[in-house]
Design goal:
With 234 residues, the chain is α/β, with parallel strands linked by helices. The chain is 45% helix and 15% strand. The chain starts with 5 loop residues before the first strand and ends in a 5-residue tail after the last helix. The structure holds 3-methylbut-3-enyl trihydrogen diphosphate (IPE) (2 copies) and magnesium ion. The site of one 3-methylbut-3-enyl trihydrogen diphosphate (IPE) has 10 residues, from helix 1.
Length: 234
């Protein structure tokens, strides 16, 4: 669809899905990973070039040890299992967030996969140990470091676009549409800077149940955006 280059998703509701199916929470996360694979196909079909998914927040470290280690194992095996499939489908894999918080072995796998898939024409951005306030604060520190080195020159001339170059998403366009599943109406510290003009779509559907029909509804809601923005665009 025209104007829909980048979709970002807060993949929420895996735990509730697992509970509804009388399964362990990790089964919900596994089903969530399958939903992500389907989502990539929907995006491709629609001509979307970037898909960003919130997979693990800076706050999620506070979950039980069992759940955190299960999620890390899932991430590690996802990378191992999907490596060739991503490459074959020309998916460029990228991670944003505090990757230094992840284990050395996962960091290595991520770096290798980013390098291996760098020529892909569809970008999957995975937010891991990600928090938008943390991202903005790290950007501010990096900017300040450069400003000190240059003796404070050009400080007053700093533009929004110049600052955005310090964010983890420096080479990724802002999301046009942000989807959150499972009925929660909040951003939970996701892409605060980048979401400034995004359209939002909320659904009660739990992430593992997010299917083509849901995707089409989200796209349909996005298609009315120009009317909602009204005069601003004219
Ligand atoms: C989202 O599902 C996935 C992660 C945060 C890793 P949740 O695990 O938050 O699922 P609910 O909100 O408990 O249903
Ligand atoms: C947001 O979901 C983070 C991810 C989807 C990874 P949470 O379930 O962790 O967020 P809160 O706690 O409901 O805000
Ligand atoms: Mg949740």
């Amino acid at each position: 669809m025209k104007g829909l280059r980048h979709i970002a998703v807060i993949m929420d509701g895996n735990g509730r899905w697992a509970a509804a199916h009388r399964k362990a929470r990790i089964s919900g996360h596994r089903a969530g990973a399958d939903a992500l694979d389907r989502m990539m196909h929907y995006c491709r079909d629609e001509g979307v070039e970037f898909l960003t998914v919130y997979a693990f927040s800076t706050e999620n470290w506070k979950r039980s040890k069992l759940e955190v280690s299960g999620l890390m194992k899932l991430l590690s095996s996802y990378i191992d299992k999907k490596k060739e499939e991503l490459k074959a489908n020309k998916v460029r894999f990228r991670v944003i967030g505090r990757r230094q918080d992840l284990s050395n072995s996962i960091q290595k796998k991520i770096a290798a996969l980013e390098e291996y898939t760098k020529d892909g024409d569809f970008t999957l951005v995975v937010a891991l140990s990600y928090g938008a306030r943390d991202e903005i604060l790290r950007a501010a520190k990096a900017f300040a470091r450069d400003a000190i080195t240059s003796g404070g020159k050009n400080l007053e001339a700093l533009k929004e676009d110049d600052f955005a170059k310090y964010l983890d998403t420096s080479d990724i366009p802002d999301p046009d549409l942000i989807i959150r599943t499972s009925g929660e109406l909040r951003l939970s510290n996701f892409l605060l800077w980048q979401a400034a003009y995004a359209e939002f779509y909320f659904t009660d559907t739990l992430w593992p149940d997010f299917d083509r029909e849901q995707f089409d509804k989200a796209i349909e809601s996005f298609s009315h955006r120009e009317r909602r923005l009204g005069a601003r665009l004219k």
